[in-house]
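User: I want to check something. If I give you two sequences, will you return the structure for each one separately, not as a complex?

Assistant: Yes, each is folded on its own. Here is the first sequence with its structure:
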Amino acid sequence: MIHLINFNDSLIEYEHPNIKKSAWDTMFDYIHYSANVVYGVDTETSGFSFVSKDLLMLQIGDNNHQFIIDCRNPINDREKQLIKIFLESDNYVKIFHNAKFDYKFLKKKFNAATDNIYDTYLAEKVLNCGKTDYGYGLGKVVERYMGVTLNKEIRGRFTDTASAPFTIDQIVYGAKDVEYLVEIRDKQLEFIDIQGLSNVCKLEMKATRVFAEIEYEGLIVDKLAWDKLKKINEHDSTLALADLSKHAYNLPELLKYRDNQLDMFSPTIEEKTTINWDSPTQVLKVFKIYYPEIDDVNGKKLNPYRYKSTLVDLYIKYKEKSKLVSAFGDNFNKFIEQDGKIHTNFQQILDTGRVSSSDPNMQQIPASNLYRNCFIAPKDYVFVSSDYSSQELNVIAYGSQDPVFLQALELNQDLHSVCAELVFGKEWIDAAEPDCSYMKSKEKCECKKHKKLRTQVKTINFG
C-alpha cells in the first residue's frame, strides 16, 4: 500500500486502489511497532546541488508499505524531529542508492546525520569492481535484479514539474524505488556473503557517512585570493607561450611555420609561428621532425625528451602553466556554490583502490601554499591536518606477511629505506652521509642520495 503523507487536501484527487492519504502518525507507528527494521529510503529533488536546489519528495518504505512525503508543503517541528530520529537511529537499516546524494538533502531539510546506511550502489560496485560498461545506476541495478525497466521520463519529470501536484505515475515511481531497494539488498547480500565481501561492504557503508559530511560541509574559498592567483597564472601562461613561439620561430627546421605578418602599429616583426600549441595533432607533427619515434605529446611520454630539446622543455613549461589556467581559473570558479564553498564529490570504489574527487577534483590542487591558503576555515575555526604513518605499508605487510616488512614496521624502522638497502646494496651504503640517521637507527634520513634511492624504491613498494 502507498501512503500519501503531508499532501495538500485540495490537491488529493487520486483514484488508485493502492494509494491512500494517511496521517504522519500512521507512518511513525508503522516504523516503531513493525517487526521490520530494514527500510528503503529515497528522495526526489529539484536538481543535483543540495545548496541551491530543494527536496521535493521523501519516500520511506518496505515491501508492504511505502510512505510518500510531499516535502514542498510545511512540515512542523514534531514531524521533522521524528524523521530525524528515524534517520539517525542505529536500530533501523536505511537502504539508499547512492546514499551521499540523499544524505545531503536530508541533512539540509531535517538536520539529520543519517546512520546505519546500506547503499545498493556501493554494494554493486564492491561486487563488480573492475567490470567496464557494467552500469551501477539505479535503472541498471533494478533491471539486473528485478527484471524491471524504470521509466526515465517519469524520473525527469520531478525536476520539470517541481511545483506542480505529483501525478499518480510519479507517486508510484517513488514508491517502487524504495520497494525495489529492499529486495535488491536481499539479493546483493547473498552474493556478498558468497564472495566473502561482508567486511569490505560494512567498511564502505560506514565511510559513506564520513564522505557525505565532508561534501556537505565543503570548503570556503577566499575568492579575492583565488582570482588574484588566476590572473598570475594567466600572465605566466602568456609569457611561457611567447617564449615557446620565439624559440620555435628561430629554428631552421621550422621556417615554414613562421608567421611574418607585420603589425601595422609596430615597425618590428613579432617572432611567432602559425603552430597552434594547444593542438596535440599539430604539436606532434612538429616534434616528429626531431624525434620520429614520438607518438604522443600528452602526459609523461614527453618527459624523457625535455632535457634533450629546449623546444620540448618550453612546450612542457607552457602546458604546465596553461593547465593551471584551465583547471583553476574560470572552470574552477563555476564550482563555487551560493554559500561561497566548494562541495566536491568523492567516489569511493575504483579499480585503483583509491578515492577520487570530481566537480571539482580537489585531489589535484597543487601542493603549494599559494593555492591551499585560498581555502579558509570559518571564523574561530582552524584546519587540523593529520596522516596515518605508513598506512599502506602496514596493510601490505599484514596482507603479505612478508618478514622484512613485518620486522621493519614492528621495530619502527623506515621501511622504504630498509627496502632501498636491500635493492641497492653497496650503492646505498656508499651514499650515506656522516650523520645519516638510517645508518645509526634505521630511521628516515636526510641524505641527498638516499632520498633519491628511497623515492625509486617507493615505486616497487606501492606497485
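And separately, the second sequence with its own structure:
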Amino acid sequence: MTRDLRQFGQLIDRIYEGSTDPGAWQEATRSISEWIGSSTCAILTPTHTPEMGGFNISYGLSPLLNEMWATKFAAQDIWAIRAIERKLVIPGNVLRDQQLVTEDEFLASPWSRDFLAPAGFGRILTGIVFAGPENRDIPVVVSCLRPFDRPYSEQDAEKLSLLVPHISRAVGVMFRLRDAEFHVATSRMALDQLPHGVLLFSDDGGVSFANRTVRRILEIGDGLRLRQRPDDKDLSDLVAGDRRQQEALDEAIRESIAPDLLSTRHFARAISVSRPSGLAPFVLNFSSLGHANEFGVGHHAPRAVAFLNDSASLCRIDAGLLKSAFGLSGAEACIAELIANGSSNEEIAYARNITVNTVKTQLRHIYEKTGTSSRARLIKLLLNLTDADSGPQH
C-alpha cells in the first residue's frame, strides 16, 4: 500500500506539472495508462476535433490513428453518442463501455469494425473532466483503451475516479493561463498580461502574487480585498467581507496547497463571494501547482493558484466606433470584442459557430484594417478605445 501511494503521489505531481508545461502531458498520459493498466490513454474533447476547436493529447496512439479519428471517425464514436443521449456527461463521472452500449451494438458499429478493431482496441474506461463552461461547454474526458478481450473492472474505474479531480485542476489551470497568443503563461510578467485575475499562494496560504487584473478588481474593496501581512511585506491575505465566505476561502486555499490525494475538490467547484454593491459575485477557482513551476523559489514559492472571475468587468466596445473608425464589418467587430476580453481563436470559433480557419482569416482582416500586426497590439488598441470612451461598461 505504501508503494502504491508513493507511485500515486508521483503520478499526481506529473499531472500538475502539465498545468504550466503542456509538454508534460505526454509523460502524464503515459503514467496514467500504466497506472490503470491500459494500452493507451488520451485527454481529449471527444465531440470536437482540433479543427473544431478541440484537442487530443494522447499516449500510445499512432499519428495515423489520431488523424483518422479527427478526419473521419469522431462523429461515429458510439460511446460518446450514448453517453450524451443518456445524460451521463457529468464532471467526475467515470464510465466503462459496458455501461454505454451492449457488446452486440458495439461490435456491429462502424466505430468498432472500421476504426478500433483494426488498431486492436475494443474497451474504454473514460472519466468526465469537464462538461460545462470551463471549456466553452465542450466536454473534456480522459480515456483509456484496451483490447476487447480485456474489459475494465470496477476497481479500474475507482482508480481513474481518484485521478479525475486532479486532472480537472491541471487542465483548468492550463486553460486559464493561456495568453493572447495561446501560449501558456509561465512567468509572473506573463501572468500580468492575462485579462483575467490570477493569484498565487505560498505554502502558508499567503498571497505571494496578484496580477494586474486582480489588483484592479480588488482595489475597489467590493466584498473582497488583499490585506498585507504586518510581519511579511511580500505576502498578503485574501479577505472576504463575510465570515462564512472567509471560512470557505480559507478552506479552499488550504486544500489547494496540500490536497488530499484520495479526495480533492474538482476544479469546477468554485467559491462564490458576494458583493455589497449588488453586482454579480466574484467567483474563484482553485488548484494546486506542480512542484516544478517557474513562478517563484524559496519560502514564497507558489504552491497553489486561484483564478478570480468578475463578470461585471467585461469590456464592452462600441461596434459602431469600430465600423466607422476602421471599416470593420459587423462580424469583425464582434470578434474584436471577444479578443479584447481574452478569448482564444478556438473559443471565438465555438461562440460564433464558425471554423478556426475562418476566425484566423477574419483576424488577418482586422489586423490590416486597424494597422496592428499582432494580437497583443490589437488588444492594446481596443482597450485604449474603451478608456477613451469612459471605460468598460458594467
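Because they were folded independently, the notes below concern the second chain alone. The radius of gyration is 22 Å. The first helix runs from residue 2 to 17.
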